[in-house]
Structures are given as structure tokens and as C-alpha cells.
Amino acid sequence: MSTTVQSSAAPAPEKDTARQIQAALADCMKGRGFTYVPFVAPPLEFGDEQEKAHGGDHVAMKAERSKRGFGVFYHLVHPHQPKDVDDPGANPNWKIKRDLSPAQQEAYDKAEPSCQAEAITKVTGKVVKSEEDRFAQINRLIDQTVKRELDGDPELVGLASAMAVCLSGKGHRVTSTKPTAMHTWGWDLFTAQKNEIAKNDDIPDTGLPEGEYYEPSRLSPVEARRHLDREIKVALDDLECGKDFYAAYQPRFRQIERRISEQFGVMG
Length: 268
Fold this sequence. Notes:
Layout: H1 13-31, H2 48-54, H3 58-68, H4 74-77, H5 92-98, H6 102-124, H7 131-150, H8 154-169, H9 179-199, H10 221-241, H11 243-263
């Protein structure tokens, strides 16, 4: 039995597409009178255990769930620290923009989204309005595809139904037993709780799509930890009941996620 191994010297197709988009973006920005350095951010580094978890490995998923729950309140307890403009590895265009005059920065902010959309369309053929629209389209297409390809799969339907029965026995209420609904019910539950907290803080949620909110601003670390602890407990119940379901569902979900992301030049 032979296998084909891709040479490590050859760039992955999606990474090559990302470079082409950045090159086209730089050309467009040059045409608008701005210097832009093509920059492809390195992909998020996932350890072996996280990769296993994303693929449905039960032991790895349990370790991740024990720490992050469904991933909703975790970032309020352990906030991400973004790179500073002068940090090694930071996007060099941040510094270029910082050094412009206020009037030039305003013009830059108008030119960059337009050029991003133009570059993405030129390279991928996907018509997008902005970088934000690009990811909105990716997420929408992933959602449509997993529902079409996975919700009717007999094996997954059976596993999802068994998982729902188990969760009901533990006192959890699930409103749909479709495979895609079972995959996200926990995330949806705690996201709704977080949004309810955010709705009641004093930050106006202007400029966001209907139903979306900024992160809660007045949640103390102790309160955030309490929410996360409850989320972890539910996430572990979910995993215990869904051990067989996730082993079958996650690899197929990840394959769809990668396939669609790559169509838009995003490393999945």
C-alpha cells in the first residue's frame, strides 16, 4: 500500500492563496497612494491535544472541556492579549498606519477595506464587501453545508438522539435532536446567557448586527469564573453523553470547515 506525501517545501494551497490575496491588496493600496506590506499571519498554533480534540478524540476533548467548557466564558476569565504594534511578529502595516497623520489614517481606513474586498474577489472569485463580510459568508456557508450534509446522515441522527436522551436524564433541556443542533446547543445556551449579561451593562451596542452584543463590561473576574465553572460542568455532561456522537461528527465537521474556508483563501 503506497501513500502520497506532500513535500514540506511546497506551500499549502490555501496559504499560497492567502499570499496572492495579500499581494493583490498591496497593489491596490499602492494605487491608492499607501504603502502596504503583504503579510500572512501565521495560523493559530494548536497543540497535538487540541488538534485531537477538534477531531473528536474523547480524552483530548475532556481535557479541553475541563478547562474551557464550550469556550464562551473562558475568554472573560482569561482575556486574550493582542500583539502590540511593535511586538516581533506583529503585522508591519499596523506601524505604517500608526505613523500616518490623522487625515492619512482616515483615508487609509477607507481604502483598506475596499482593497481587501477587491483582492479577495480577484484571487478567489468570491464577491465580498469587506474582510468582515468574507468571514460572515464563510460561517454562513459552513452552517448551510453541515446542515445539508450531516443532519440527514442516519448514523449521526441516531447518535444525536441517544445523546439527547442522555442529556435529558441529567436534567438538561435540548430543543432539537438534529446533529447540528446537538453540536452547538451548549455553546448556544451559554452564549445566550452571556448576551443577556451584556444587554444589561452600560455600553451601547451600536454598530453591531441585530442580536449581537459587545462583551460584558462589568462582569468581575469572580463572577466570570462562576459562570465558567457552571459552563464546564454542563460541557462535561455534554461530552459524557456525546462521546460516540462527537467521535463521528467532529471529523466530518472539520473537513467541511476546512473545505469552505479554503475556497475563500482562509487557512482552515
